[in-house]
């Protein structure tokens, strides 16, 4: 059996053809394909607007910037996430505050969110970890109560649903990532969705250096060549090449999701009665998009090392962000989230991606069971 990674992209001839068409066109950087990809994704998730950017991290940063976050402000997020979900807050000069996770869903715990709110809190960044939607009804209620903005980190959750609403259509803003291990890929890319026209226009402005050529927004106009920088923005643009790939990939999202859910179901059935393996919890009112499939085991390092010996590219998602050396050196040494730490000590991400074959998955299942049994015998 060849090496099996935990995740990988699935590229077909149609994807390649669509990229080649752009390469042969007049536009290869920001052009009409960006608009098309934005429109298609907004339509898919049920949002009014979408803004495509260079990657998922820049999507998070722009979402924080357009809220006007800065020194003295606080934003609450989960420690069980990639560092970008917290770093985006620090980029603005604001402080990130970590709320513990729910011990079943591994998502941010709404009760701990409310415990962490102060007079300086301005926003919440719930992370739909693994593709399992957060308890958005409770989070939205808290946000309304304390007049807080909500930026959903949907990097894992394209195609996931909370109470029949797609992630990307619920809160002030939602960000997505199109890294190769995600549900669809642009190579690198990101997107922010919103139903707020004012936020949408600010996102577009900040994406391109804060520059506009819209005459209605300019203080003067010397001619058709004229443009104005209205804000200190960024070069967070994405290319038509990337968006051609993303749009082609988005056309296959339903089959990509169906296969991931099928793989997750096969894992669930295989591990259901195996001592020493805890399968992911599935909330009744959520439709998981399974970016990751995470199990919990008692002796994580031993199981992890054995599976790597079997050429299975298991991984760990994630080390609690506040435990990273940068955060430890930046005032977070005293932070403890008990559920997050318990989760981290036991979690292993197993392979899940569209092109994972049944035979490959059966091999993974066999070796996982064998490895777990070895550690508890």
Structural write-up:
It is globular and about 80 Å long. The protein folds into 2 domains: 4-250, Type I PLP-dependent aspartate aminotransferase-like (Major domain) (Aspartate Aminotransferase, domain 2), CATH 3.40.640.10; 253-376, Aspartate Aminotransferase, domain 1 (Alpha-Beta Complex), CATH 3.90.1150.10. Helix 3 packs across helix 7 and helix 9 (253-271) runs parallel beside helix 13 (358-376). The strands form 5 sheets. The chain has a 7-stranded mixed sheet, with helices on both faces. The protein has 13 helices and 16 strands. By secondary structure, it is an alpha/beta fold. Helix content is 38%, strand content 15%. The model has no long low-confidence stretch (mean pLDDT 97). A hairpin with a 2-residue loop joins strand 7 and strand 8 (165-166). It has helices spanning 13-23, 32-45, 56-66, 84-91, 110-116, 136-146, 197-207, 240-250, 253-271, 300-309, 325-328, 338-344, 358-376; strands at 4-5, 49-53, 74-77, 95-98, 121-125, 149-153, 161-162, 165-166, 173-177, 190-194, 211-212, 228-229, 286-287, 293-296, 312-313, 347-350.
């Amino acid at each position: 059996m060849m090496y099996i990674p935990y995740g990988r992209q699935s590229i077909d001839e149609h994807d390649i053809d669509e990229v080649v068409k752009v390469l042969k066109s007049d536009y290869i950087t920001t052009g009409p394909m960006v608009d098309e990809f934005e429109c298609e994704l907004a339509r898919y998730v049920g949002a009014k607007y979408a803004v495509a950017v260079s990657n998922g991290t820049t999507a998070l940063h722009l979402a924080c910037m357009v809220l006007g976050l800065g020194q003295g402000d606080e934003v609450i997020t989960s420690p069980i996430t990639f560092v970008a979900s917290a770093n985006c807050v620090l980029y603005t000069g604001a402080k990130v505050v970590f709320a513990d996770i729910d011990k079943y869903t591994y998502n941010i715990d709404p009760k701990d969110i409310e415990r962490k709110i102060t007079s300086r809190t301005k926003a919440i960044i719930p992370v739909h970890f693994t593709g399992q939607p957060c308890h958005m009804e409770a989070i939205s209620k808290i946000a309304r109560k304390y007049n807080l903005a909500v930026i959903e980190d949907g990097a894992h959750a394209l195609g996931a649903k909370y109470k029949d609403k797609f992630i990307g259509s619920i809160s002030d803003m939602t960000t997505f990532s199109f890294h190769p291990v995600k549900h669809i890929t642009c190579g690198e890319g990101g997107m922010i969705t919103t139903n707020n026209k004012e936020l949408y226009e600010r996102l577009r402005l900040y994406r391109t250096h804060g520059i506009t050529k819209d005459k209605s927004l300019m203080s003067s106009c010397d001619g058709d060549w004229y443009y104005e920088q209205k804000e200190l923005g960024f070069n967070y643009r994405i290319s038509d090449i990337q968006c051609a790939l993303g749009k082609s990939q988005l056309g296959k999202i339903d089959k990509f999701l169906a296969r991931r859910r099928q793989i997750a179901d096969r894992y669930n059935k295989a591990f259901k009665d195996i001592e020493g393996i805890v399968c992911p919890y599935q909330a009744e009112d959520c439709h998981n998009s399974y970016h990751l499939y995470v199990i919990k085991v008692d002796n994580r390092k031993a199981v992890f090392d054995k599976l790597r010996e079997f050429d299975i590219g298991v991984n760990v998602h994630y080390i609690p962000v506040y435990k990273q050396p940068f955060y430890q050196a930046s005032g977070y040494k005293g932070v403890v989230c008990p559920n997050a730490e318990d989760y981290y000590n036991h979690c292993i991400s197993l392979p899940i991606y569209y092109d994972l074959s049944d035979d490959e998955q059966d091999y993974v299942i066999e070796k996982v069971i064998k490895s777990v049994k070895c550690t508890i015998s």
